[in-house]
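TOPIC: backbone geometry
CONTENTS: sequence, structure tokens:
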Amino acid sequence: MNYSVLSAVALTATLLVACGPNEAEIAAAKEKATADSLAAVAAAEHAYTIDAEASKVKWAGSMIGIKSHDGTVKMTAGDLTVQGGMVTGGSFTIDMNSISPLDTNYAKDGAKQGTKAMLIGHLMSADFFDVANHPTASFKITSTEGNTATGELTVRGKTNTETVSDIVVTEGEGTVMATGKLTFDRQKYGVAFQMPMKDMVISDSIELSVELNGTAK
């Protein structure tokens, strides 16, 4: 190989090195690729199956100016979809036979009135949730905007549009936890004591705090 050929090869190699990316450009490209990958993951819609045992709904109601009661009900099933850290869809079903008060505003067991067992029995009776004929309640999301979800709440066989507000979503590796608040008017669902004078002292608003825990499908 003569000197002219060697010179041409050296010149070509020099041009290739000079035209290639430098270390800063390579690092920037890697950072962009990582950012694009993370953005793609965040933009993807994730579907979860609700863990009924790990999820719960807290409820609260009150007798105006007298006392309040609160407790929980259990879930039986549910699903949730999340995109970009926001809920985009989902539904859950509640076992109405699982009504469990947590407060202490009751008479002692064995009293003629005002015991916890009496409250549970009354809430499950035809005066209120009529659990024998309507053993489940449910909520299905129909639309979402930011941290608010609108959907169909079904209680005692009646369905109305309600809103879940203050939704907070926490995603992990294949897991999700979503919390939110829903307040509904019991009168819209026929949840009313059939003695008007007594029903009037009960607040029409029932407050729910929902916590959904699930795993990726």
Remarks:
- The chain has four helices and nine strands.
- The longest strand covers residues 67-83.
